[in-house]
Amino acid sequence: MKGQIVKNSSDLYFISYEDKIYPCKCRGIFRKEHITPVVGDYVLFNKDKLLVEKILDRKNYFERPRVSNIDQAFLVTSLKEPDLSLNLLDKFLSLMELNHVKPIICITKRDLLSNSEWISIEKILDYYKKIGYSVVFNTEVDKIRELLCEKTSVFTGQTGAGKSSLLNKLNSNWNLEVGEISKALGRGKHTTRVVELFCINDGKVMDTPGFSSLELKKYKKDEIRSSFLEFFLYPCIYKDCTHTNELECNVKKHVKSHDILESRYENYLSFIKEDE
Ligand SMILES: Nc1nc2c(ncn2[C@@H]2O[C@H](COP(=O)(O)OP(=O)(O)OP(=O)(O)O)[C@@H](O)[C@H]2O)c(=O)[nH]1
Ligand SMILES: [Mg+2]
Ligand SMILES: [Zn+2]
User: Fold this and answer.
1) Which mutation among 78, 154, 158, 178 tests ligand 1's pocket best, with the greatest number of atoms within 8 A of CB?
2) What pLDDT is attached to residue 111?
3) How far is the CA of 114 from the centre of ligand 1 (A)?
């Protein structure tokens, strides 16, 4: 029968099939051929022998967090504790663009900001909306529920950002463990340790362990450039302009005139340096 992996713990894969969960092991051949199933995989399995027999073709696959077959990704982004990292946000958006997965920026901990802090952050968020990204707040529970309909979504983001807390708000039965924020470090301490997939109405959503850094190393400079969607709004004279040392660069011009957010441009420069 065909099921879906909803959780993995060492060599056990929990497979959901007709409203039941089957803890299965993999056929020996998997190890020999270096095949590792991940949460999100659709598999053929034998429910009497509790054995995964075959992984069906994946629509997509991610290393961090390790998941497959997702339609959209909520980047759960806290404004404080841990502090907002535009570098991480931009890197994540680029990763999603390069993998053709729709990103949704999900803001948490708005309540921890003073009014003046909020005013400057609001401007930044408006910029992301202007260039086409969806931005939601973790307080907008109904809106998030709607966004989850008929899709497989993943909640990802820095550790301590509030992924599991938000999932608990969506369904209190899930009762996921949430962490304390260390006052000294200003960040959480990896409360969620494994990926887990849950059903919500007619959609699916995955909770994942947080991270504190991401890599774009495997992408080429021109791929990274193409992932900054707003650059296309300001075509340069040279089609292959890298927007770095060229004298006449329309992108740089529009960074100066604040049509392009300066931090976006700075992050672009730092990302293309990563593969050097
Ligand atoms: N003030 C405030 N605290 C929040 C908010 N959302 C989450 N928290 C708190 O942030 C802490 C971390 O939340 P978690 O849900 O465990 O964070 P996580 O993203 O799942 O973290 P990992 O599992 O380690 O990746 C908890 O103490 C939550 O109560 C929010 O909107 N405002
Ligand atoms: Mg968590
Ligand atoms: Zn240019």
Assistant:
1) 178
2) 98
3) 19
Q: Cα(244)–Cα(249) distance, rounded to whole angstroms?
A: 8
Establish whether residue 156 lines the binding site of ligand 1, counting it when its CB lies within 6 angstroms of any ligand atom. Answer: no
| Residue 275: per-residue pLDDT | 67
The pLDDT of residue 31 is: 87
Ligand 1 neighbourhood includes 40 CB (under 6 angstroms)? no
What is the three-class DSSP state of 227? coil
Q: Is the CB of 112 under 6 A from ligand 1?
A: yes
pTM of the model: 0.94
Look at residues 70, 14, 16 and name the one whose alpha carbon lies nearest to residue 37: 14
> Per residue in 180-230, pLDDT tens?
765 555 555 788 999 999 999 899 999 999 988 888 888 999 999 999 999
Q: What is the 3-state secondary structure (H, E, C) of 197-218?
A: EEEECCEEEEECCCECCCCCCC
- Could you tell me the CATH superfamily of domain 61-207? P-loop containing nucleotide triphosphate hydrolases (3.40.50.300)
Q: Are 17 and 28 in contact (CB under 8 A)?
A: no
Q: What is the tens place of the pLDDT at every residue in 123-135? A: 999 999 999 999 9
Which ligand is located closest to the Cα atom of residue 80?
A: 1
Report the separation in Å between the CA atom of 122 and the middle of ligand 1, taken as the mean of its atom positions: 21
Task: Quote the pLDDT of residue 186.
Answer: 55
Segments in the chain below pLDDT 70: 181-188, 275-276
For the structural domain made of 2-55, what CATH number should be given? 2.40.50.140
Whether 163 lines ligand 1, by a CB cut-off of 6 Å, is yes
- Write down the domain spans for the chain: 2-55, 61-207, 227-273
User: Tell me, what's the pLDDT at 183?
Assistant: 56
